[in-house]
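Appendix B. One record, verbatim.
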Amino acid sequence: MTRDTGATTSPGATSGTTGVDALLTAQLAVAWAGEGHVGDARRLGWWRTDLVSEFGGLDLLTRLLPVTAPWAALQAVREAARRVDAKGRALANDADAVCSLYRLGFEIDERAEERLRELKLSGQSPTDALPGLAGVIAAWDRQKFAAWVASHGKTTYAVDPIGRRLTGERPAPLTALVARLVAGLVDLPEKYPLPHYRRDK
């Protein structure tokens, strides 16, 4: 099976759109939108955090980490999303075979972590380093976020005990796989729907 890790030609490259950049953009955007306790502007409520709001976690992080606070806040909410995703995957009989937005296999997951560190150290803001984030996390608007999800195309799924199992063949290119997983969030239900594929063992 051919793997597309989305690696850039240069480890420090920040220009252009790569598979890993598309993955990080999706992970951070969904994590941001999934927050629930955000003052009066409640978002989707998929995880019980308030990490990326002006008067919530971001305020504290700005005082502690004035240079990298925006990255730290997004990293923290991404971790909250990853934990909810992992808790759902753990309910599967073969959890290691589940491929989701926050668990794509060791090689890709490691490359995403490396790339995130590179971008954080680049001196750029998250929305400059990952331009696709800018239109998503500027301000919460449910309809705009739903449109962003829809822009990733359509996918079909069957509901199984852990969430939405996407049907059809799992795409090989990382960018296409990310798009399918994001598209599986369609309708933005009350509970995180955990779109997923079953990976080949």
